[in-house]
Amino acid sequence: MAATTEDTIPPVTQETERTSRSRSVTPERPDQSDGLPQSAENKLRPASDIINRIIWDQQFDRSDYIIGFVDRFEGQLEVSLGSWKKDLTDEEFIPQHRILYIRHINGDVVWDRRRRIDKIFHSGNSAFVELAFLTN
């Protein structure tokens, strides 16, 4: 008598389902060797939060801040926050994802995407950078 497929394939049971799930391997994260914690607790606030705080908080003067951004054609540029265009239909509008940093006119960087610095809300790695003198 010829063997049917039902005879050759073992039935799936709860036990075989458990063992097949337990064998799955989770990918490892790349090593974060910069010495700074990488957790959900130190997420960097977006540039829009920083810009809105500078615009609406009376302790800041918007004309004292400069935004560094990447232009698609001209590379890295800077523009004064006072001349910043937030209207999407404006020709000079710059999308938030192109903002690299925000600095004071005295040169002090108050927000930097690459270094994850935020000196306005102290999000990202700002607290670790400001307290680095404690580890020396």
Automatic annotation (TrEMBL):
<dbReference type="Pfam" id="PF04457">
    <property type="entry name" value="MJ1316"/>
</dbReference>
<feature type="domain" description="MJ1316 RNA cyclic group end recognition">
    <location>
        <begin position="44"/>
        <end position="113"/>
    </location>
</feature>
<feature type="region of interest" description="Disordered">
    <location>
        <begin position="1"/>
        <end position="44"/>
    </location>
</feature>
<protein>
    <recommendedName>
        <fullName>MJ1316 RNA cyclic group end recognition domain-containing protein</fullName>
    </recommendedName>
</protein>
<dbReference type="InterPro" id="IPR040459">
    <property type="entry name" value="MJ1316"/>
</dbReference>
<feature type="compositionally biased region" description="Polar residues">
    <location>
        <begin position="1"/>
        <end position="14"/>
    </location>
</feature>
<feature type="compositionally biased region" description="Basic and acidic residues">
    <location>
        <begin position="15"/>
        <end position="32"/>
    </location>
</feature>
